[in-house]
Write a structure and sequence with these properties.
By secondary structure, the chain is an alpha/beta fold. It has one domain: P-loop containing nucleotide triphosphate hydrolases (Rossmann fold), CATH 3.40.50. The protein is 37% helix and 10% strand. It contains 15 helices and seven strands. A hairpin with a 5-residue loop joins strand 3 and strand 4. It is globular and about 50 Å long. The chain starts with 37 loop residues before the first helix and ends in a 7-residue tail after the last helix.
């Protein structure tokens, strides 16, 4: 996947006929008259990009995880404002719309993921604060449904900040979240981490199978990347060679603006050692993403055709390709071929 030319909007268009393509029964969605729902549109995009001519069948062959344990993904960057919460919500929503049972774990006391998906922090009694406390509350008992079918939320509350201070005195404190996540019946679990390398983030690192590092296209967002990778090595007990030879993490470039040519070139030069560990999908700066946060919806439900929606769809497809490659689970050829068609150019 090359990064050549300037940043272009996705050339992939929705070209599947509604008469020939219907979502499966288990993903049925109620649509408003005259409006195609986000779930239906996402399936249309999936098939238009990855499949050959329509087969006439009414089911979609999305990859389904077959292993017993959930695939846990931590979204981490100790710098704030890099797009962690936006990525957690929209990547989780995309996977849920594609038929994967997904759980978002809000591990940030600021509760931005909880608020961003439309859940009032004062509308529930128990949260991740009770899960991380002693005695521990089972996480399944605090999980809430969201407005998206197949996407659930383990909410956060400001009380989690006080609980984090108490965790420092506990034995094996880095294992608390990993123990809490055991036995959950989800395909994917995404953990939105606080902007620090404190005990909550260390718990997420210990519990996760894969790490997404959103990195804003700015000078200061790069400063803590080396420290974060060092923390990953320590918590995961990896050598620097193991960390880079395995598929343990990916850097996700966010808030990309093609007009900032000098800044973009500087960031790309700084990230050159991590080129093979950077997602091809790039999240471009887009006002619709900001407005979707205000509306407390995933970008696909706010403005499906905006570039923010296109970028997160590309990210979801690339993530699934990487997931199947890393886990070794069987996958349809159309998913394996997705990566060749999905890229956002950066370098001029």
């Amino acid at each position: 996947m090359g990064r050549t030319g300037t940043c272009q909007e996705s050339s992939v268009t929705l070209n599947c006929s509604e008469d020939n393509l219907q979502p499966p029964a288990r993903l049925a969605v109620t649509e408003q008259p005259g409006r195609v729902g986000a779930k239906k549109k996402l399936w249309d995009r999936w098939d238009s990009v990855h499949s050959a001519a329509p087969t006439g069948k009414n089911d979609h062959c999305s990859p389904v995880a077959s292993k017993s344990n959930s695939y846990v993904v931590a979204v981490i960057n100790q710098k704030g404002g890099t797009g962690k919460t936006t990525t957690t919500i929209n990547l989780s929503a995309a996977l849920a719309y594609l038929g994967h049972r997904t759980l978002m774990v809000d591990l940030d006391p600021q509760a931005h993921t909880t608020i961003g998906i439309g859940v009032d922090p004062d509308a529930f009694i128990e949260s991740m604060a009770e899960v991380m406390s002693v005695p521990r509350k089972p996480i399944a008992e605090i999980v809430l449904p969201t407005y998206i079918m197949g996407l659930n939320l383990a909410p956060a509350h400001i009380h989690l900040a006080h609980v984090a201070e108490q965790i420092y005195t506990r034995v094996f404190r880095e294992t608390i979240l990993a123990q809490a996540l055991q036995g959950l019946d989800y395909d994917f679990i995404f953990i939105d981490c606080p902007p620090s390398l404190g005990v909550l983030t260390i718990n997420a690192l210990y519990a996760c199978d894969f790490i997404v590092i959103p990195c804003q296209i700015s000078r200061y967002s790069l400063d803590g990347l080396a420290d974060l990778l060092t923390s990953i090595e320590i918590v995961k007990n990896l050598s620097i060679q193991d960390l880079f030879q395995g598929d343990h993490f990916r850097v996700l470039l966010t808030m990309f603006d093609p007009r900032n040519k000098v800044t973009n070139q500087y960031i790309l030069d700084e990230l050159r050692p991590y080129k093979e560990k950077t997602f091809a999908a790039v999240i471009r700066r887009n006002e619709s993403l900001n407005q979707a946060q205000i509306a407390q919806k995933a970008i696909f439900d706010f403005d499906f055709d905006c570039i923010g929606s296109q970028d997160y769809q590309q990210l979801a497809l690339e993530f699934l390709n990487l997931y199947h490659r890393r886990t070794g689970l069987p996958v349809e050829d159309k998913v394996l071929n997705a990566q060749g068609n999905q890229s956002t150019s950066l370098e001029g």
